[in-house]
Amino acid sequence: MAGDQELKLLGSWASPFVIRARIALNLKGVGYEFLEEGLGTKSELLLKSNPVYKQIPVLIHNGKPICESMIIVQYIDEVWAAAGPSILPSDPYDRAIARFWAVYIDDKWFPLLWKIIIAKADDEETAEAAEQVIAGLQLLEEAFEKCSKGKDFFGGKSVGCIDIALGCYFGWVKAAEKMAGVKLLDKEKIPLLMGWAERFCSADAVKELMPEVDKLIEHGKMVRARLNAAATN
Amino acid sequence: MASGGEVKLFGMWASPAVRRVEWALKIKGIEYEYIEEDLSNKSTSLLEYNPINKQVPVLLHKGKPIVESLVMIEYIDEVWNHNPILPEDPYERTKARFWATYSEGKCRDAVGKVYFTEGEEKENAIKYLEDIVRVLDEELKGKRFFGGENIGFSDLVLGWMAFWLPVAEEVASFEVLDSEKFPWFASWTDNFLQVPVIKENLPPRDKTVEFFQNYRQQRLAA
Q1: Cα–Cα distance between A116 and A216 in angstroms, integer?
Q2: What is the ipTM of this complex?
Q3: In the CATH scheme, what is the homologous superfamily, with its name and number, of domain B7-79?
Q4: Best CA proximity match to A169, nearest among A20, A21, A22, A12
Q5: What are the two backbone dihedrals, phi and then psi, of residue A148, each rounded to the nearest 5 degrees?
Q6: Is B94 in contact with A95 (Cβ distance < 8 A)?
Q7: Does residue B90 have a cis bond before it (omega within 30 degrees)?
Q8: Angle, to 10 degrees, between the axis of helix A110-118 and the axis of helix A124-148?
Q9: Sign of the CA dihedral B116, B118, B121, B127?
Q10: What secondary structure letter does DSSP report for B31?
């Protein structure tokens, strides 16, 4: 790609949404400047680039901001189409399936996981949320079987849209297990997904991005404390 | 063009999510079979094609189901290339998708909050909704539609606000659509509802008000 292209990514090491954008950029072999936002602070650049949500990630390409992680991922796939493997499938129906699962994961499944992460100790809702997270993983196990068609990833031979949409949360799933003392990842129940998760986390485009679970737990506890403090104020 | 029988849409007459898919199909001139669902008694077909969400709309193309209205519209746009709905330029596409996401997240939440609250909570919800509309008003500055001179993806997805927000105002007794406070948004709603494909594909206003009155009462009683 042209050397005069300027690419910045505003993000944080812990955010699964930011990890999505970084995986996509890695898949395409595109260089970028990573600007780390601290927890609880928002830089001038972030507020200027994403005035509506004031959230990371924001990709800034030649001065033009792009917000929302899956929108960023699709943009990267379209602009650097020739530079690396396709992230979205080529067939329109397969693309619709991929987009459907991305919506399911973000709108239905992740809020349940988040409930577990920020729950206070002995919260009754945690057990119920855990059951629903597991039920969701069961659906994703079936989806994996259909989409992968025997290959390594949802996207087939290489990491694709659903892999990115789901895989980015993997560290947080493990963190949630430890924080709430629940078992979410059961090799008996989701054998295909467990195999996939290992392959995903060791893929070249992913391996250096997945945060350590202990660090996520620490981070999660801070987020939880801030949320609970805000709620009581 | 799709021949009869190839495209089916499961819907409910009052649903904005269903209507926006119909607008997309009409823009492309695609023939489709429409199947009205009774949501209190969902058909086995609907549950078979959308087992996860169990909701309308569901689009069936050559027997294969697609779920989620935004996903459906992108699918329709990709399979039938004429009369494009999404822009061609990748950066413009991100903007189109951004406002679509804004509709389904922030806008729907904001209107929902006004619908289902009362008293001080409702007053706060109305202020919040005004902030949401203000953002849209600013985005529309100098533009006829979100898509520019012609309606596009963002317009189709946000279009529910042009019809169903005034319905909500009547049902839940509030006012947010002020053409002095939000002149660009007000013009957009007028222009949008005048587009032939939209104008000819709206549910009857009185029936819709009645439907949502009942819906609101049921939810508030629960």
Answers
A1: 14
A2: 0.95
A3: Glutaredoxin (3.40.30.10)
A4: A20
A5: -75, -30
A6: no
A7: no
A8: 150
A9: positive
A10: -
Amino acid at A211: P
Quick check: A88 and A160 in contact, CB under 8 A? yes
Q: Where are the domains of chain B?
A: 7-79, 90-221
Pairwise CA distance, residues A65 & B2, whole Å = 38
Of B73, B30, B68, B152, nearest to A92 (Cα)? B73
Cβ neighbours of A79 in B, within 8 Å: 90
Write the pLDDT tens digit of every residue in A25-51.
999 999 999 999 988 889 999 999 999
pTM of the model: 0.96
Q: What is the pLDDT of residues B191-212, one digit of tens each?
A: 999 999 999 999 999 999 999 9
Strands B33-36 and B7-11: parallel
Please give the CATH architecture assigned to the domain spanning B90-221. Answer: Up-down Bundle (1.20)
In this complex, is the C-beta atom of B131 within 8 Å of any C-beta atom belonging to chain A?
A: no
How long is chain A?
233
The reply to whether domains B7-79 and B90-221 share a CATH topology is no
Q: What is the DSSP letter of A119?
A: P
d(CA A212, CA A79): 31
Alpha-carbon distance A165 to nearest alpha carbon in chain B (angstroms): 15
Q: Which two tokens stand for residue B159?
A: 């279009």
